[in-house]
Recover the amino acids of this structure.
């Protein structure tokens, strides 16, 4: 299973047609989509308990790109950003300030990576996960980069 990209800011799949409510790749959809049935989630839960592909299975772990991905994970941990975003959403000013600093630094890292490598912006989430800006927005926290 590999996560399918979002459609813009919405967590909806990029292959979901909002007007027709149909999947644009239905006959070739990933196993995760085939297993998803909202009223009975046991099939998809079973898939999540199995070994899944990670970036380490796809990227050469002896490469500089892998080192950059690991650096990003250590420097801009999504779990910490989520925790700070929860506290910022509840009115925590210190959490908001720390989070704003992390978000600005991570956005700068992504821009620099993109400028130096030419990797399209839409591929950045594969290498580094969702941006901290996107993570914050899920908690209703908007920060400028």
């Amino acid at each position: 299973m590999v996560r399918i990209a979002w459609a813009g800011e919405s967590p909806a799949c990029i292959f979901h047609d909002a007007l027709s409510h149909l999947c644009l790749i239905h006959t070739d959809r990933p196993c995760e989509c085939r297993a998803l049935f909202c009223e009975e989630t046991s099939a998809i839960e079973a898939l999540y308990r199995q070994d899944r592909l990670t970036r380490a299975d796809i990227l050469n772990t002896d490469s500089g790109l892998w080192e950059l991905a690991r650096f990003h994970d250590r420097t801009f941990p999504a779990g910490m950003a989520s925790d700070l975003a929860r506290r910022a959403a509840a009115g925590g000013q210190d959490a908001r300030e720390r989070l704003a600093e992390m978000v600005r630094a991570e956005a700068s890292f992504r821009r620099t990576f993109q400028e130096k490598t030419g990797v399209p912006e839409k591929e950045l989430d594969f290498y580094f996960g969702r941006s901290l800006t996107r993570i914050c927005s899920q908690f209703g926290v908007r920060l400028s980069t």
Q: What stands out?
A: The chain has two domains: 6-49, 55-137. Residues 6-49 form one domain. The longest strand covers residues 10-13.
